[in-house]
Amino acid sequence: MAPIDRSFSRRRFLGGSAMAISAGALGMPFVRTARAQAATFKAGVITSLSGENILGGNLTKQGYDLWADAINAKGGVEVAGDRFKVEMFYGDDQSSPATGADAAERLIVQNGVDVLFGPYTSGSTIAVQPICQKYQVPMISGSAESPNVWKAKPEFNFGIIPAVDTTSGLSLGVLAKLSKPAAKTVAVISVNEPFSKETGEGFRDGAKDAGLDLVTYELVPPEGDLTPVISKIAALNPDIIAVGGHEEVLINVVKTSKSLNYRPKALIMHYGITNPAFAQALGPDADGTTGVVVWLPTVSYKDDVFGTAKDFSQMAQKKLGGEPDYTAAACAASGLVLGDALKRLGKKPALTPEDRVALKDAIAETDIQTFYGPIKFEKDGPHYHDNIQPVPVLVQIQGGKTVAVGPKEAAAADYIYPLPAWK
């Protein structure tokens, strides 16, 4: 992947939907809502409301706003028997990490927010973390997925989406359980760029836990002829090929494999196949390719605010005009974490600086079930303060459509394994 402050291509396909644009927010470096008259909890949103990451930035904003609307419709967050509404403030990072840090500081200093909801990109998230530490204000990040966010051990930041290196590794375990006869070997191709490499390393490191024998790990440049790599892998004949990279590279993997008349029993990548451009570029050859998502409306999770995952999806479609992806869902779940922590904290607004530190400690003790899945933050290790609880959902292209195939509780179709020979 390109530098981590760029938008992730797996989400660009949403650009055509009504969810892609948030009216009134575009191009404004700093926006805020009208002040409420009664005591409120103040939440600041840092995200890309302009610049190259605007589509993803609006996904995060819309997810956070879905929670604020839902909880305010119930009278607000419950604390000590009373309810207090949430007032939302917005800071535009303009798709620049440095600008995001400045916007976060303004929200804290000028608007006195009690908590921040984090940016769309990992780059901006990393830039905002020192501001949170400086002012002792907690941040809940519904989008950041780079493991580099959590390797820094941020005291005041908490992540809802599992880091990409954990979900890629876990997905191999799900695939291995679905395969009949059971898959035994895997080859990993990893593109030598930050995000893709982290994904490939997750596949590589997760092979052992999945009970798979890693036959080779190939680090390749973002562009170039893949024929030598695929030829080597074909000679090793693994059951699974796992690719750390985006759709452009996977398209090349499929095309090269077919040109060599080599068809693995399973082909999996982390992100990219949900982009319609992938299936369009390959046509029928895209069928059978497996991908990974963190959340779908078909999962069996639920909570007291949004109801089931399906209920949340229907609500989001009604409000936003398009089906929410896992990013919007994770951002909405960020609000559930805040509401739960405030209730346990028991402090009514306005929060003092000491209360905000105590709120950080309450967030760290989160252990809840939500429509998005379980949320509990790591207390140590390389994923410190990240939520690595959710089990990834496998999707597969079947008949030109992307369908959920595993785990069992999220499946909408049977998993096709082994893949048939090329036609």
TrEMBL record:
<keyword id="KW-0813">Transport</keyword>
<feature type="domain" description="Leucine-binding protein">
    <location>
        <begin position="41"/>
        <end position="392"/>
    </location>
</feature>
<protein>
    <submittedName>
        <fullName>Branched-chain amino acid transport system substrate-binding protein</fullName>
    </submittedName>
</protein>
<dbReference type="InterPro" id="IPR028082">
    <property type="entry name" value="Peripla_BP_I"/>
</dbReference>
<dbReference type="InterPro" id="IPR019546">
    <property type="entry name" value="TAT_signal_bac_arc"/>
</dbReference>
<dbReference type="InterPro" id="IPR006311">
    <property type="entry name" value="TAT_signal"/>
</dbReference>
<comment type="similarity">
    <text>Belongs to the leucine-binding protein family.</text>
</comment>
<dbReference type="Pfam" id="PF13458">
    <property type="entry name" value="Peripla_BP_6"/>
</dbReference>
<dbReference type="InterPro" id="IPR051010">
    <property type="entry name" value="BCAA_transport"/>
</dbReference>
<dbReference type="InterPro" id="IPR028081">
    <property type="entry name" value="Leu-bd"/>
</dbReference>
<keyword id="KW-0029">Amino-acid transport</keyword>
<keyword id="KW-0732">Signal</keyword>
